[in-house]
Amino acid sequence: EDQVTQSPEALRLQEGESSSLNCSYTVSGLRGLFWYRQDPGKGPEFLFTLYSAGEEKEKERLKATLTKKESFLHITAPKPEDSATYLCAVRSPRGGSNYKLTFGKGTLLTVNP
Amino acid sequence: SAVISQKPSRDICQRGTSLTIQCQVDSQVTMMFWYRQQPGQSLTLIATANQGSEATYESGFVIDKFPISRPNLTFSTLTVSNMSPEDSSIYLCSVDSFGDTQYFGPGTRLTVL
User: Could you give the C-alpha distances from A10 to A7, A79, B83, in angstroms and in order?
Assistant: First the structure.
């Protein structure tokens, strides 16, 4: 069974204080690792997809990296508007074009001004 | 990405009643998914609803409790039947246009008294 573990559960940063979120996974046949951002009362918003170890993606202050066992979401010089829950998910195949996403519980990031 | 809407955005229901949640997409999509997000838990897939076939339910979820309709390529409904307080949760639909990335609706917050 696919498993995704995110750490820490919660992280509080001062504005400008860079840090990283971790996503450890076990999956049968990885077909992509996804990062989403979720604001309170809203649905998850897609950020990145990573497909193979060594791959990196960047968007503004966020950079996602992938190894064979984990992914990191690096946040450089965060701002209060980066406060949200960050979700990690892995995709595994289910036959034909079908697949399943398995999510972690998320990391609640709070950035104080 | 597709624009996804859900109705209702929130509801408070009595034990033993049923609620139907609607998911509307602004473009035709093959794959639609229904998730449940309980406090402190990860997003959990309830079922996959592909047009032209019966919904496929995940372990722990049954059609009698969560009947799903998928009448066309832009619309789906999820019914939560014979509700109990344990069904209080956020219910989310998501879509995948190209077999690559899932995009989520805003969610329906359900409280069962």
Answer: 8, 16, 32
DSSP state of A6: E
Interface touch A41/B103, C-beta < 8 Å: no
Other CB atoms closer than 10 Å to residue B71's CB: what's the count? Answer: 9
CB contacts of A104 in chain B (<8 Å) are 42
Choosing among B21, B101, B109, which should be mutated to test the A contact, i.e. which has the most A CBs within 10 A?
B101
pLDDT tens-digit profile of A41-90?
A: 999 999 999 999 999 999 999 999 999 999 999 999 999 999 999 999 99
Does the beta-carbon distance from A105 to B45 stay under 8 Å? no
Q: Model confidence over B3-18: pLDDT tens digits?
A: 999 999 999 999 999 9
